[in-house]
Amino acid sequence: MEKIRITKEFDFEMAHALWNYDGDCRNIHGHSYKLFVTILGEPVSDRTSPKFGMVLDFKDLRKIVKQPLVDFLDHSLVLYRESDGEALSAVKGLYKKVHVFDFQPTCENLVLFMVDKIKSLLGPGLKLQAVKLYETTTSYAEWYAGDNK
After folding, report:
1. Could you give the C-alpha distances from 62 to 76, 89, 97, in angstroms and in order?
2. Is 107 among the residues known to form the active site?
3. Sheet holding 127-136, edge to edge
4. What is the DSSP string of 75-122?
5. How many of the other CB atoms lie within 10 Å of CB of 14?
6. Number of separate domains in the chain
7. Does the N-terminal or the C-terminal CB of the chain have fewer CB atoms within 10 Å?
8. Using one digit for the tens of pLDDT, what is the confidence trace for 77-129?
9. pTM over 0.85, yes/no
10. Residue 33: how many CA atoms within 13 Å on its side-chain side?
11. DSSP strand pairing (98-101 vs 76-80)
């Protein structure tokens, strides 16, 4: 059977600040992110299956990505744990949805975070093929399975 790629798009809003950065992005600022997740697999060939002809139901791909990533990050502030301790405490006291990560929250590192999470949730016979994250309408980071063998 032939392999097919399917892609689903997601949108979310998120703020971040880049610790120790030498430009304006060291300040808290937000983006309207667009996330594209591409899965590779073979369409179900069992004619009796309700998923006949599908690699993965788009609804199921949505479940894999939306709650653990999109809902988790949407309308949150993401900071690096190395940021100033007092400032982190103050920000966490002001806002309810603050995530402190062990990595600098660049678009590139957010993609790697998403790749790890999605891979852990995929069923057998499915392979994560690509993740593309637009931080702005003209700037994005992307990960391809073929580049990471």
Report:
1. 20, 34, 22
2. no
3. 98-101, 76-80, 4-16, 29-41, 127-136, 139-144
4. TEEEEETTS-HHHHHHHHHH-S-EEEESS---HHHHHHHHHHHHHHH-
5. 21
6. 1
7. C
8. 999 998 877 777 888 888 889 999 999 999 999 999 999 999 999 999 999 99
9. yes
10. 28
11. parallel
Per annotation, catalytic residue among 13, 25, 29, 82: 25
Q: Which residues of 82-116 are buried (b: 16+ CB within 10 A; e: fewer)?
A: ebeeeebeebeeeeeeeeeeeebbbbbbbbebbbe
Name the catalytic one among 9, 42, 75, 82.
75
What range does the domain containing 92 cover?
Answer: 4-147
pLDDT number for residue 87 = 75
Whether 113 contacts 101, CB under 8 Å: yes
Which pLDDT does position 86 carry in this prediction?
76
Q: Among 10, 30, 37, 11, which residue's Cα sits nearest to residue 105?
A: 30
Q: Quick one: tokens of 72?
A: 């988790």
> What CATH number should be reported for the domain holding residue 80?
3.30.479.10
Count of helices and strands (H, E) across the chain: 4, 6
